[in-house]
Amino acid sequence: MPTPAYLDWLVDTGERLTSADGIEIEVWELKYGDDPAVLSAWAKHFREHYCDDDMLKKLIAGTGKTAGEFLLEVKFPDEKAPPGPSIRSGDFAEILVADYIEYKLGYWCPRQLRYDHKLNRNESTKGCDVIGFQFVKSDGIDPNDELFVFESKATMSGNKPINRLQDAVTDSGKDALREAMTLSAIKQRFLDRGESAPALKVQRFQDMADRPFKRISGAAAVLNSPLYDEALLAQTTTNGHFNGANLKLIVIRGATLMTLVNALYGRAANEA
Predict the structure, then answer these.
(1) What pLDDT sits at residue 1?
(2) Which residues contact 83 (CB under 8 A, 6 or more apart)?
(3) Which residues lie across from 151 on neighbouring strands?
C-alpha cells in the first residue's frame, strides 16, 4: 500500500533522547505544509475513521442536515465545548500514531473500527489506543508474528510542559488487561460486517499460550512544539512495565498542532 502524501510531513529528526532507565526515545516532527490536494486527501482519510463516505450518505438521510453539519454536530468531537477539544487532539494523536505504525513500520492497523460507532462524540473510545499486526507468512502462523499495542497521549495547548510520554507509558502498562477485550471487540466488528478473513487475522493473536507470537508495546507523546521539553521527557521511567523489554518510546512534535487539528476537522466536514 503506498504511503499517503501527508505522511511525508512526518519526519524522523534523527534526535534521540534517553529515558531515566536507559530506553531510547525517538523524536519525530510533523512539518505539515499548505498543499490543498494533500490536505484534502488527509481530511478524507481522517473523516472516514468516523464514517465512510458511503455510510455518511445513508446516515444523513432524514436528518435535515447537510453532510458537513452532520459530521460537525453528530460525529466529530466539538471544536470549543469541553471536553470536545481534548477529545479532538486525542483522536488526532491516535490516528497519527496508527498511520506511523502502518505506513512507517509496516503493520496492519484496522483502526477505523475504533471511531465509527462512538455513542458520544465527546468521549474517547475505551480500550487500547492503537493495535497493529504483523505476519511473517501470508498464510498460516509463525511465532515471530507481532502484536504491537501502542498508547498515545497528546498536549496541543497550554504553556507549561507536562510529561505526556510518562502518561503514555503508565497507561501502556494497563494494556495487559485491556488487550483481550480490545482484540475481541475488533474481531466482533469484523464478524458483524461479514468480514471473516480479517476476523481470523485478529483471532490469531487471542491465545498466546497455544499460538505464540511477539508482543511489542509502545508509548507516544504528541506535543505542540513549545511544550517539547527534553529534560522533562528524559525523566520518563518504564520501571514496572509488564513488557518493558519490548517497549518502544516516541515523541512527535509540531508547530500549532491544534490549529492543524481544527483545520482538518473543518476541511473533512466541508468537503464531505
Answers:
(1) 65
(2) 122, 123
(3) 219
Which residue bears the cell 482484540? 183
Cell representation of residue 102: 502502518
Cell of 49: 475513521
Cβ-based neighbours of 234, under 8 Å, separated by 6 or more = 17, 18, 19, 20, 25
Per-domain residue ranges for the chain?
A: 5-270
The H or E element spanning position 260 is helix 257-270
Amino acid type, 55: M
Local confidence band at 9 (pLDDT 50, 70, 90 cut-offs): very high
Reported as half-sphere exposure (CB side, CA atoms, 13 A), residue 204 has a value of 25
Q: pLDDT digits over 104-153, tens only?
A: 999 999 987 789 888 899 998 888 999 999 999 988 899 999 999 999 99
Could you tell me where the beta strands, DSSP code E, fall in 36-158? 130-134, 146-155
In this prediction, residue 126 carries a pLDDT of 87
Phi-psi region of 186 (alpha: psi -120 to 50; beta: other; left: phi over 0): alpha
Average pLDDT over residues 199-210: 97
What pLDDT is recorded for position 44? 96
E strands, the chain, are 10-18, 24-30, 130-134, 146-155, 214-224, 247-254
Tell me which amino acid residue 67 is.
Answer: A
The sheet carrying 130-134 orders its strands as: 10-18, 24-30, 247-254, 214-224, 146-155, 130-134
- pLDDT, average across residues 22-51: 96
